[in-house]
Amino acid sequence: MSKTDVRAAEAADGELVVRLAFGSMAAQTLRAAVRLKVVELIGDGQRRAADLAADAGTAHQPMTRLLRALAGLGLLEEHAPDRFSLTPAGGLLDPEHPASLTSFVGMFTDPTLLRAWEHLDTSVRTGEVAFDTLFGTDFFSHLGHHPELSGQFNAAMSQAVAETAAALPHAFDFGRFTSVTDVGGGDGTLLASVLDAHPALTGVVFDTADGLAGTPRTLARHGLTDRCSVTAGDFFRSVPKGSDLYLIKSVLHDWTDDQAVTILRHCREVLPPGGRVLIVEPVLPEVVDIHADADVTDGGITYLTDLNMMVNVGGRERTRTDFEHVCHRAGLALTSVTPLAAAPPFSVIEAVAD
């Protein structure tokens, strides 16, 4: 490699490090845009920065600087000095957009979630959950005492599941089953999509009372009130009987291996002959390869999610070997892992009674 090539490679490496170091600033830029309703104020056309500032109740120059930062991040386009419109990505910050990520951005840039990240090194040293130490309670108990934050979390999870909800009903043979219970199913977005696509199925959304706050509205909107029931409970104690398929999406990664085994064991205890447990989560490769597995690891985001589990809730993302281990301890045998191509980085993990 020539000296010129070496310098170019070093420059590219430096740009990567600098870009990563500025990541938290980019996140707060998104948060400010959401809080100031920049996207809603711009709308479908072009708007002058001065007019946006007046509508948002801000000073002109600071608003212009925010808008230009958003343009630099690819969320806006500046057509002429001080005249802006939305890019398709920027449109996702509109709460009325069908694929809106407004609540997701609000939750994952919230100071409550981010405080524990300031102590990531401590969690790495000790293995302790930084959130618990900072707040004197675990993350989900904290949500239970803060209704506004809990509502934001539920909305964020609903937005986060939208892509998977569109893909999953066509990526697995649900027609083999008669009833599906969505364990930790939140507002019912995922199960509603499955039931819409498979009219012969009935369903149960099972979650805590707080997690189910928006579920009746979701089921009513989809016309599923007669085909799907809502059951409140604690999956660390039991799960409802009566289904031949138990669906668990983005639940196990919130918990330690021992806790994940408890949840899976409760599913195993009510599983009828021929029944299945269907886990939908990212499956990390056994070895990180940013070239071969870029589509699986989503540019490293899944590994950041893993660290978020460490500092905020004590859970983890898992490899196939990890899933085989927790399933075996729960009396289940993992039979297949299929990447959900239309909703990366998720995979569909099927397990049967061992």
From TrEMBL:
<dbReference type="Pfam" id="PF00891">
    <property type="entry name" value="Methyltransf_2"/>
</dbReference>
<dbReference type="InterPro" id="IPR036388">
    <property type="entry name" value="WH-like_DNA-bd_sf"/>
</dbReference>
<dbReference type="InterPro" id="IPR029063">
    <property type="entry name" value="SAM-dependent_MTases_sf"/>
</dbReference>
<dbReference type="InterPro" id="IPR001077">
    <property type="entry name" value="COMT_C"/>
</dbReference>
<dbReference type="InterPro" id="IPR016461">
    <property type="entry name" value="COMT-like"/>
</dbReference>
<dbReference type="InterPro" id="IPR012967">
    <property type="entry name" value="COMT_dimerisation"/>
</dbReference>
<protein>
    <submittedName>
        <fullName>Methyltransferase</fullName>
    </submittedName>
</protein>
<keyword id="KW-0489">Methyltransferase</keyword>
<feature type="domain" description="O-methyltransferase dimerisation">
    <location>
        <begin position="19"/>
        <end position="92"/>
    </location>
</feature>
<feature type="domain" description="O-methyltransferase C-terminal">
    <location>
        <begin position="117"/>
        <end position="332"/>
    </location>
</feature>
<dbReference type="GO" id="GO:0032259">
    <property type="term" value="P:methylation"/>
</dbReference>
<feature type="active site" description="Proton acceptor">
    <location>
        <position position="253"/>
    </location>
</feature>
<dbReference type="InterPro" id="IPR036390">
    <property type="entry name" value="WH_DNA-bd_sf"/>
</dbReference>
<dbReference type="GO" id="GO:0008171">
    <property type="term" value="F:O-methyltransferase activity"/>
</dbReference>
<dbReference type="GO" id="GO:0046983">
    <property type="term" value="F:protein dimerization activity"/>
</dbReference>
<keyword id="KW-0949">S-adenosyl-L-methionine</keyword>
<keyword id="KW-0808">Transferase</keyword>
<dbReference type="Pfam" id="PF08100">
    <property type="entry name" value="Dimerisation"/>
</dbReference>
